[in-house]
Amino acid sequence: MSIPVETEQRPAGHREDEPVRLVLAGCGAVTKLYYAEALSRLQSRGQVAVAGIFDPEAKQAALVQARLPSAKVAASFDGLLAMDADVAIIASPPGYHADQSIQALEAGLHVLCEKPMATSCSEADRTLAAAAANNLLLATGLVRRQFPATRSIKAMLEGGMIGRLRSVSCFEGGSFQWPVASMSYFSFAESGGGVLQDIGTHCLDLLTWWFGEPDEIHYADDAMGGVEANCLVRLRFGGFDAKVRLSRDWARPNLYRLEGERGSISWTVNETETVELALNGSRTTGFVSFTNADGRSRDFVDAFCDQISGLVDAVRNGVPLSVPASAGRNVLDLVEGCYARRKLMDMPWLGPEELLNFAASAGTRQ
Amino acid sequence: MTGTVAVLGANGFIGCRTVELLQLSGWANVRPIVRRPDALASLSRFAMDAMVANARDLQALTAAFAGCQYVVHAVAGDARTIVDAVEPVYRAAAAASVLRLIYLSSASVHGQSPPSGTDETSALHDDQTIAYNNAKVHAERRLGQLSRDGAVQVVVLRPGIVFGPRSRWTGGFADELIDGSAYLVDGGRGICNSAYVDNVIHAIKLAIEVPEASGRTYLIGDREEISWADLCRPIAEALGFDLATISIPAPLSFAPSWKQRLKESEGYRRLVRSLPRPVRSGLKAGYGEWRKARRNATGATMAPTVMVSEERALLHQCQTKLPWRKAELELGYQPAVSFEEACRRSVGWLTFAGYPTCGNGAGER
Hints:
- The complex is a heterodimer.
- Chain A is α/β, with parallel strands linked by helices.
- Chain A has helices at residues 29-44, 58-65, 77-81, 94-106, 121-133, 148-158, 188-191, 195-211, 300-317, 325-340, 352-365, and strands at 20-25, 48-54, 72-73, 87-90, 110-114, 138-141, 165-173, 216-221, 230-237, 240-247, 255-260, 263-268, 274-279, 284-289, 343-344.
- Chain A folds into two domains: 20-144 and 301-323, NAD(P)-binding Rossmann-like Domain (Rossmann fold), CATH 3.40.50.720; 164-260 and 332-344, Dihydrodipicolinate Reductase, domain 2 (2-Layer Sandwich), CATH 3.30.360.
- In chain A, 37% of the residues lie in helices and 23% in strands.
- In chain A, the strands form two sheets. In chain A, strands 14-13-12-11-7-10-9-8-15 form a nine-stranded mixed beta sheet, with helices on one face.
- Chain A starts with 19 loop residues before the first strand and ends with a helix.
- By secondary structure, chain B is of the alpha/beta class.
- Chain B is globular, with a radius of gyration of 21 Å.
- Chain B has a seven-stranded parallel beta sheet with strand order 3-2-1-4-5-6-11, with helices on both faces. Chain B has a two-stranded parallel ribbon with strand order 7-10.
- The longest helix of chain B has 22 residues, at 277-298.
- The termini of chain B are far apart.
- Chain B has two domains: 4-167 and 192-223 and 320-337, NAD(P)-binding Rossmann-like Domain (Rossmann fold); 259-302.
- At the A-B interface, helix 11 of A face helix 1, helix 11 and helix 14 of B.
- Chain B: GO terms for molecular function: aldehyde dehydrogenase (NAD+) activity.
- Chain B: Residues 5-221 form the NAD-dependent epimerase/dehydratase domain.
């Protein structure tokens, strides 16, 4: 299958002293929790000017506008694209990501699309093709790549600090508390999947960013007619296995642990600056904090700022995108690969009658 | 069984398993009802007709119950929620022409350590030291008053210590073992009036089906008489802990520490709930780091942070096995799952959930 080549670099076309004008689609949870604050910070630094926002629910848009008072509320998505802007941030529900990104690109806007960039690889390919056809930038919201902690892990692995890897285990999740607006968030049509498509996108992106593409994929989840709340992914990377356990219903310590021949690295999920490093023979285990080259501390919202700034820099100065949309497409491919190999997780608390009935009904559906 | 069963509080431990079991066994059409859309995350693994309604919102509840013949009221929450939800739920059920309401009360209405001879006819008291018990007593009384109009049939179930996958007595106890806060008063020799969750659901099904159950109240439990140590041992063994190390003497008083009062206060819980998950994770990780650094600096061992609650201390010293004879005689109730099998399934769930059990291989803790 041929994948359209995206535009990662574009000649500078914007004066550096002018804020980049942007518009934002989607005023749901991710915008209220992160994008609104990040845009507010970037506006105060003079990097961006938020020209407009849109949400089909006027009440949600009004709540966000209260935090970004200079933004006008568009009555429709078309109205949003008609505003004078260079960049569109697409933070709508995942089911809209591809179509809205394509519309924005065709309207002449560079796009930062929140993850997942689409709900299928074919949609992602259409989006990449639209970016290439219009010679515009397309970035994807894989915010964890902006953390000094995850960048440092990559550098430590590349520098061979803990030697050849032996195993990787990741647990992520807990009781689901993302403030979703409606039940449709849990439909396959709207979101393209369950916990794997949701937080799994972040997790699998980090693993492939650190280790490359896996050689083998094994996948099981607990979906029984709906979308999965729990899943177990086992990936084979060269000489070691990675086990990923994701959950929306029960918490265990949210921890990634990388065991190498010469030591180990542990990272607490969403810890932006700190990792735990243990080196064999040194009798030392310590928490190591990292900052970016500017020496400034980074919180979670700063990571969103950096994500937007990356696209702004690319628009202004023609520098390459730090997280191009091809990364979003790659992780989508891996998610689809998992679903294609799907098996039912072992759920030992289910009685024999339940399992038999489910097997019979699954057979009927097929 | 024909008809649709609404499960109110479907995201809670008992509600969630009720939906799962009824759906998978094909026993009835099930309609999960939850307070907020995000509470459907776990139940969305089934394709079902779910609804969102606050248990205090009469109008929303009436809409959610439409077309349902039965309602299982499994709403958990603080004492105020327990009491306040009763009237809107009953009135909404009446407005939606629901035939029967199954109210999940608790054997705690008799206290955590009831006297010998306690049964469904024993007098209830609302001056107990534990607010939950009083709230359940008030809820039962209010439901009794409301149901006098005969608009909806009511059956009240009083299960004992309901355990199983996702319960505080299974997953919660595993967490306590791992973080060093687990304890068993007096070695856990007291009687545990256990009720495996599937047995409680079996009783719910009978309460729906048996015509004579209307207007009656039933204690529900497992067949076996077990101790608290019996309940906790399979979990401890699966995780590689020795129960003997967590035995503590019965406390002489229950004056809670400032830390305990803070953790149990509604204001603190509300504050924690209001924080975005990354902030909470960060704070938790930071606290963990601080504790670890403190341990390293002082050279102290993993000293458990044991905060003994009055509720647990009373439970662990219980000397009475509550009877379920009335349910047996009138409903035909017989526990469907043995205690041994219930423990096997519960430990199986721990493995599923990612706990470092023997089944999850060594070195993963």
